């Protein structure tokens, strides 16, 4: 994996939240009550996770998002500043509280319910105000915890300036042709292909969007079609103890490798490596590796 001396410039447009993680012996089924052995809060939100993930790996990162005018919003801002993420385009709203996510975690698996709240107050005007930073960026990352109209606007703006765009298609929604045509890479979960593409045959999806769609599953494996053959990579060096945040970590690693001019194969391998690191610590951001973990 090549790591050039140029510092990548990345814009992340997306959500930030505080995750309340409840540890249980088993995930509750419908109408069931279970007891939690612990309740802890962590920094989260797919956008913020990717902003921290790419900043720790050495990128200059601008995060565009929205928090509430409340103590949780202040905590998120402080955390991002500490992580060297530029917060000049984080907006505060008095219309909604800061986003939260309620996570029930058991034996590594997690069920997540997100309350977007302030994240839904991010508008296309906010994206527009960062226009000149899009012009000088190398790559833009989006996910689906802010309004789809904002995601679409962001993708169009990035493409207008010829920038690379990556989409982590989570939480899953059906993606329209415009989005799929304009993004350079899409990261999707194997269990959500039908929702995202209207097609649940993995091979069909991968062949149609070769070198563009990267499908991940719970075993930290990633598969894509390179135009000739299916490419499958798995990193199970570290046992995935905490699976929350692995998709964000993969996307961060993939994006960094791409910015440094690596092949898609190298991008996938590095993404898997970054994802493996996050899965050994609790919280979506806790275990995200830093550049010096890989390169001196
Ligand atoms: O992708 C993991 C994230 O999903 C939810 O948005 C939680 O905030 C968590 O941090």
Brief descriptors of the model:
296 residues, alpha/beta, UDP-N-acetylmuramoyl-L-alanine:D-glutamate ligase, 27% strand, globular, potassium, ATP binding
Find the CATH superfamily.
Ribokinase
List segments where confidence is low: pLDDT < 50 over at least 5 consecutive residues: none
Distance between the termini: 13 Å
Radius of gyration from the alpha-carbon trace, in angstroms: 18 Å
Principal-axis shape? globular
Description:
By secondary structure, this protein is an alpha/beta fold. It has one domain: Ribokinase (UDP-N-acetylmuramoyl-L-alanine:D-glutamate ligase), CATH 3.40.1190. 32% of the residues lie in helices and 27% in strands. The protein has helices spanning 46-56, 71-82, 124-129, 131-136, 148-160, 177-182, 193-197, 202-208, 246-259, 264-278, and strands at residues 9-13, 17-24, 36-44, 60-68, 85-86, 90-93, 100-106, 109-115, 139-142, 164-168, 185-189, 213-217, 221-225, 230-234. It comes from Chryseobacterium daecheongense. Keywords: ATP-binding, Carbohydrate metabolism, Kinase, Magnesium, Metal-binding, Nucleotide-binding, Potassium, Transferase. This is Ribokinase.
């Amino acid at each position: 994996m090549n790591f050039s001396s140029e510092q990548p410039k990345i814009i992340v447009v997306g959500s930030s939240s505080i995750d309340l993680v409840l540890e249980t012996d088993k995930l509750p089924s419908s109408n069931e009550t279970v007891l939690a052995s612990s309740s802890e809060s962590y920094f989260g939100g797919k956008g913020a996770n990717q902003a921290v993930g790419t900043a720790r790996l050495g990128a200059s990162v601008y995060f565009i998002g929205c928090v509430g005018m409340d103590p949780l919003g202040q905590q998120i801002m402080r955390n991002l500043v500490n992580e060297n993420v530029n917060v000049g385009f984080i907006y505060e709203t008095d219309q909604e509280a800061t986003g939260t996510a309620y996570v029930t975690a058991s034996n590594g698996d997690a069920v997540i319910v997100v309350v977007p709240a302030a994240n839904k107050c991010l508008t296309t005007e906010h994206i527009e105000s960062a226009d000149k930073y899009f012009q000088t960026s190398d790559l833009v990352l989006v996910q689906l915890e802010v309004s789809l109209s904002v995601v679409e606007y962001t993708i169009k703006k990035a493409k207008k300036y010829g920038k690379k765009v990556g989409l982590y298609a989570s939480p899953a929604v059906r993606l329209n042709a415009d989005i799929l045509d304009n993004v350079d890479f899409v990261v999707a979960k194997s269990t959500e292909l039908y929702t995202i593409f209207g097609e649940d045959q993995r091979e069909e999806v991968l062949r149609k969007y070769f070198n563009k769609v990267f499908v991940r599953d719970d075993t930290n494996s990633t598969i894509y079609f390179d135009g000739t053959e299916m490419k499958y990579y798995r990193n199970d060096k570290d046992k995935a103890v905490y699976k929350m945040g692995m998709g964000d970590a993969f996307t961060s690693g993939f994006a960094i490798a791409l910015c440094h001019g690596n092949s898609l194969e190298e991008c996938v391998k590095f993404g898997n490596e970054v994802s493996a690191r996050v899965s050994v610590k609790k919280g979506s951001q806790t275990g995200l590796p830093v550049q010096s973990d890989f390169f001196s």
